[in-house]
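Q: For a teaching session next week I want to show students how multiple molecules come together into a single three-dimensional assembly. I've collected the sequence lines for a complex. Could you give me the predicted structure tokens for the whole thing so I can convert them for display?
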Amino acid sequence: MSSFVESIIINFIFVRNNNFEAMNNFEFVNPTKLIFGKGTIAHLGKLIPIDKKIMITFGGGSVKTNGVYNQVIEALKNHNFIEFWGIEPNPKYETLLKAIHLGREEKIDMLLAVGGGSVVDGTKFIAAAIPYTQGEEWELILDNSLAKSTIPLADVITLPATGSEMNNGAVISREETKEKYPFFTDTNFPIFSILDPEVTYSLPKFQIACGVVDTYVHVVEQYLTIPVGTKLMDRWAEGILQTLIEIAPDLRKEKPNYDTMCEYMLSATMGLNGFIAMGVEQDWATHMIGHELTALHGLTHGVTLAIVYPALLRIMKEQKKIKLLQYAKRVWNVEDVDIAIEKTENFFREMGLPTRLSEVKVGDDTIEEIVRRFAERKIVLGERHNITPDVVKQILQNAK
Amino acid sequence: MSSFVESIIINFIFVRNNNFEAMNNFEFVNPTKLIFGKGTIAHLGKLIPIDKKIMITFGGGSVKTNGVYNQVIEALKNHNFIEFWGIEPNPKYETLLKAIHLGREEKIDMLLAVGGGSVVDGTKFIAAAIPYTQGEEWELILDNSLAKSTIPLADVITLPATGSEMNNGAVISREETKEKYPFFTDTNFPIFSILDPEVTYSLPKFQIACGVVDTYVHVVEQYLTIPVGTKLMDRWAEGILQTLIEIAPDLRKEKPNYDTMCEYMLSATMGLNGFIAMGVEQDWATHMIGHELTALHGLTHGVTLAIVYPALLRIMKEQKKIKLLQYAKRVWNVEDVDIAIEKTENFFREMGLPTRLSEVKVGDDTIEEIVRRFAERKIVLGERHNITPDVVKQILQNAK
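A: Of course. Below is the structure for the complete assembly, covering every listed component.
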């Protein structure tokens, strides 16, 4: 899986860096239109041309209890649409194939994902696979460049976390072979994304915590690396972190206020849409190690990040020290790198997530297996490509 | 002019706000692709399809002395292109008409602007006017919605200041009638913009100073208003201001370093591309008053902003006090609003610009004329629409 995850590192932020010296050269583009604010789901009827045949894709059904489903159906009452239900967390190729076949049969020409990042991810693959009839759809996953066209895709995002609503990335799993691959195409940006912060009120606190930590770690993977002179991008990354820290106490309340949910939702989108990635070095080791913990133990993505990241900082402290000190001062108002790392871990704990492997019953056997996997795949991680399997072991031991 | 400038306020940042209560609902889209870094002009040959007939538009000729022209011609040596020279600062309709006629005759199907914001602005109008043959081209300026299609447009930006390289706005002047109008269409975003910081080394210090102050005031017009709970956008606006302040000493050196020019160029683009405008209140009174000073005295735009903005802050201090205190603390590390205003004015002065009307020989007669114009047009300015002609007078008197 890791070599595929590695391709995320290269592709995910729509920025291709050239060197390790001054600010890197980069390319940036993000054509997705955001429609943000309360009541915006009602705009769907105007946003989608009336002559489109739409397939609306859903997850497991929480949108039926929180009112989102009714808002969508009401907004599209004069449109021609069909529904596809059941895209699961870590969306499965097998499930998506059913949607692809249905979409072809019904000759749909527009896709609308309504749900969290997994529904949007899965719908990105459906959008690219419907027009691909010259071979098995799985070929698109193995070679993303085969995806030459795509059904136009939009979404109503209901769980701020992955940033999928404003990027062209997806991660698709295949149950049959226990594979999990990223999927990127130039045309896979949503045409528009509706972000109504009011839909987040009904999210369980655990999901909000995972969304906040996912966003936080997306940002630091693009920020807490090695200095290449990216003053403005540093400020913007710090701005997202400061905002998350500032809204955290309100997020934990029974009913957070509307502005808090706005900041949470906007931060999640801005954390992985390329806006803070211009010219910067990137890490992504925590994500890659975390994916292994999910693969082996089914741990929620945000939980794996909360566990791995503080340990990674402790082990990689020397390499990251210049940026870590800047982070300590600007984000946590302290002068000490170790205190900043401690505050980071405490922040994740205060959000309600475990930050140690022992809390989730992961022991040495799993650590050994992860180290073995990385060694077998000859993968080294991190912004300097020096997190060898041995360093991964140190990080996981440190996270116990 | 002001009612047209007012439409900038509404349209310029691609964000339409709905209310004055919590964070505003907004829409955001920006499809322009940035290609950023040294040596990127050489990518032109790959970026533009070989079958395109290109018209390259230029300003007065500085690109011939600083090497940009040669780089462009070298990159496009296998392409089919014609050149149009002479788009002036505050680009004139009369000049642009010549380009429009030439473009039609030559059946061009791609435009490439090479120059500063005025060249890009002018080329946006050329792009929209070439396909408009059902009436006089000026009709597009009077009613932007008539612009239904556009010739694809890209640019190589040589003077960071206006942000035109990553937005869909332009300002067009008509010499014959002394009119000056904004021009916006949904399709007028550049397809791509090449930002090579090395081209800025040859800029005169005065132009750099004006570019920095223009960027600074673009940002504060979107930030220093009234609080509506926009934590992340505030951080990002402050991030641009902090960056400009941090790089200013190096910018004033004989040969600034490359990273400084990167930050300057990136800050100018990010200051007016909608990225910091999501959900925020906006002011723009300084721009509107400054435009009158330019119209009456031919003052450079950046100079008018450096003069008007500190005075506006002094007069509007009470209305802006909550944000001003935040600005004082976060941007200038002081606890006092008056000191922050003083530091703002000093920053403009240290960049080398005048900050008082007396320095540019503008007296009471001009102030009276500007007040008369606003009164005649029944225009009130500012984020609360309470800067009446009488308040404009107080501001200009304060700027003497």
